[in-house]
Amino acid sequence: LWRFGYSARLLKTNHFRTAASNTSFPAARMLLAQYSGRIPGRLVVVEKEKFFTMSETVEDKANLELYSPHPEVRGMTLLNREAFKRTVVVPVLKVKKNIVNTLLKSLKHTVLQRPGLKRVVEDPKDEDSRLVILDPQKVPEFSLEESEHEVLKQLNVYPEVSKYNLELTYENFKLEEILRAVLPEGQEVTSGFSRVGHIAHLNLRDHQLPYRYLIGQVIIDKNPGITCVVNKTSIIDSTYRNFQMEVLAGENNLVTKVKENNITYELDFSKVYWNPRLSTEHSRIVELLKPGDVLFDVFAGIGPFTIPAAKKKCRVFANDLNPESYRWLLHNCKLNKVDNKIKAFNMDGRDFLLGPVREELSKELPLLKEEQKPSFHVVMNLPALAIEFLDVFRHLLVREPCSTADLPMVHCYGFSKHNDPAKDIQERAEASLGTSLDGRCSTYLVRNVAPNKEMLCISFQIPLDMLYKRPCPAEGKEQA
Fold this sequence. Notes:
Belongs to the class I-like SAM-binding methyltransferase superfamily. TRM5/TYW2 family. The protein is of the alpha/beta class. It has helices at 15-20, 25-36, 61-66, 100-106, 146-154, 175-182, 212-222, 279-287, 306-311, 323-335, 349-364, 421-433, 464-467, 473-479; strands at residues 8-9, 86-96, 120-122, 129-133, 161-168, 192-196, 199-202, 228-232, 245-250, 255-260, 263-268, 294-297, 315-319, 342-345, 376-380, 409-416, 441-450, 453-461.
């Protein structure tokens, strides 16, 4: 159930704190019960973030000393790979070359494992033998344990451990080791980054900015496939949902290709919004749709809800105010061969709801037959502003409905810094709608955006008496 995704980290992070925030164990059990349907109330799920991750390393002080680059690299702002060279003393085991592979398998947990480092080197004194480099952390005081002695005995290898001067270069150090050695001691050097195609996207803090070009180049060096590193230099523009960025290293090419949920998208990362951490949320909403359903995507971007819904044989009306997003939306619809199933618009979200959405609902709802029963879904993924648009649904339609089952389902996203984000998002939605949603909505925790800032999705069927200017005759008597 709890599927935690972890941001890419340049240094060690506390994964549990990041994923679970301040959730207590009793609270976690409550959420688990809600998810399984045993407890009524708000439904909360956690999205698994699908984006570039780096494995966490847990190293003791001895490890840090052994595998730290040369101390003179401290404070370096322009990358000099030659300056990272360092010679360390490591244990080696002399073995005949014809049994090297067998020995490596038998002592695989004892042999030194470093990026780009040969585990076996030639013996300068004996061409028929080789020197197998052992991990000094696994061979303290250059002495093997009894179990390892037994392995060597079976292979007829003399268990004498010798000292060997090993030169470590820039290629042998891990990304986090390099940055830990370069950036000032005592300052936080952690920085999350996500991968969008060939682009690595960072959000560097002020004290890291003097080292930004070095950080960018090291990320390219240590991550095959990344050829461009950018740093966000401003907050997301509330109008077009993009932000200014600086290219730190690599090619100045921000047109890229990504794959999400088996669908390919192309985009200009500098001009449109794309967040690889929303993959699971896109999939969750699309899974609610059935073939023949109608989706109104109010803030469609380049199509992560639109295109998979169209592939599922839904009818889709997609809109985005950003001309660049609209252009890439059309491009990706054609790329994925669903352009004939989508009607795309380049309008303000409010105008889209008052225009094409109102027109389609007014036309479709009265014509529904019992055997058809398609569902109507409205997705509003603009977390900074979407809740403010909900007032559009007040008396959006004039004609009287035949059934409450036909009422559209809204999925609206928002940010919250409240202690109870689910309650906060519901109260704000109710204020915009002008009606209560108690017992008529579900709230989903999508992801943790920042400390004490959550992204949520509130889903509800638009109340009958709010959507129409006058209710059905039968329901009018009940309300009287």
